[in-house]
Design a protein that fits this description.
homodimer; Alpha-Beta Plaits; 2 domains; 9 helices; elongated; CinA (chains A, B); MoaB/Mog-like_dom_sf (chains A, B); FLAD1_M (chains A, B); Molybdopterin-binding protein (chains A, B)
């Protein structure tokens, strides 16, 4: 059950102020699970150089992959690329390959490739570009950190550009069973099941609906036969 | 513009696996902004003792307040209370005041107050209970860490129990202006505006709609007159 580990870093004041409800975390979490990559931690920080640089250092040292979202546009609050360069101690400037991509794009559109737009071609030395089929301005991979845009359509497209290049582990399979009883009634037998199947991750997610209590029990693992066996025991303990 | 600082810690495999889309972060972010408390960082970690304890220590040392969500129910994967006790080096056991609340609740319902349900009365020494008007089982405040349930209805009720007891700063006011031009056209004048008004936080949040580009420009600060002045300059630079 060895899977590569990953963390996500969401960069943006708009999430922390409650202005925007994050959707990139939810999207990435689902795609990584399908790919067999274990998302272990997410951090959300503001558009602050020290906060971004500190989080990049901590996460890139602790996990196999780090995925960032946000802060790579042309405006003054887009400082992610510079923070990545600072975190890895490398030089950053407008790079020829990124500039050429953007120049061709704006030439086709008849739009001026002004100083602000050239900021989007600032790429740290040693990074590899991530293709952006939506709006051209590329993301990049610096060592184990994949730097992507915050706009959901662009973020999602960049995720699809990068995912096929990463080695995943065995995909995690999950089985869900809804039990319409309070968690306090479920907890005893469920705890015994969790002890009997240490290779599975067993979670209980309680809900309340129309004044009644229940829980979705989720069994996760990479071995389908083992999951079926454990699920049969759960069914026996809580007949429908 | 001094506001208390805060962090949130979301505890739960279901967010990291992409099974559940978080809503507690979005809710808390909005309520803290209204209250004049500056949410600076969010972390999401799995139901893992080391990850939870480490994050609690880091965040409670760095911010005025920490709000946690998840992991305080009766099942085997509910380990938050024990992790908080470990993080602060205090004893934890079933506490009389919490047990009495729950005992009365289950007596009224005619439900057995079994061993699993008694787990929800485990409260670290020195903590203060947080009222739960939805389902009784309390949260608690341990030093500067406010420990709440993950079920959104319960989380939201606990937030309303705790917020009035916290001292907020001047509420952050925000003004938003939508500009239907690419960020590359907006960036130059916007950067000058940001330099001219260092007391304001000025963000640009790009969007793409029906194949056209635009951005919502958000000005945030505690001084309404200053915000109006800056917004007038933005309007002058980008007439509707």
């Amino acid at each position: 059950m060895t899977q590569p580990t990953a963390a996500m870093l969401v960069i943006g004041d708009e999430i922390l102020s409650g202005r925007t409800r994050d959707s990139n975390m939810y999207h990435l979490a689902g795609r990584l699970t399908e790919r067999g990559i274990n998302l272990c931690e997410v951090r959300v920080v503001s558009d602050d150089a020290e906060a971004i640089t500190g989080a990049v250092k901590a996460l890139s040292g602790a996990y196999d992959h780090v995925f960032t979202s946000g802060g790579i546009g042309p405006t003054h609050d887009d400082i992610t690329a510079d923070c990545i360069a600072a975190a890895f101690g490398v030089h950053i400037d407008v790079r020829d390959d990124a500039r050429a991509l953007l120049q061709a794009h704006y030439d086709r559109q008849g739009t001026e490739f002004n100083a602000a737009r050239q900021r989007m071609a600032r790429i740290p030395d040693g990074a590899t570009l991530i293709e952006n089929p939506v709006s051209v301005a590329p993301g990049f991979t610096m060592e184990n950190v994949h730097v992507m845009a915050g706009v959901p359509a662009v973020f999602q497209a960049m995720v699809e550009s990068i995912l096929p290049t990463l080695t995943g582990g065995a995909p995690l399979i999950s089985r869900t069973r809804r039990i319409d009883r309070g968690e306090g009634d479920i907890a005893g037998p469920l705890g015994e099941l969790a002890q009997a199947y240490p290779a599975l991750s067993i979670g209980s997610y309680p809900f309340q609906k129309d004044g009644r209590y229940g829980a979705n029990i989720v069994l996760r693992g990479t071995d389908a036969a083992l999951l079926d066996e454990a699920m049969a025991k759960l069914d026996a303990a809580f007949p429908a």
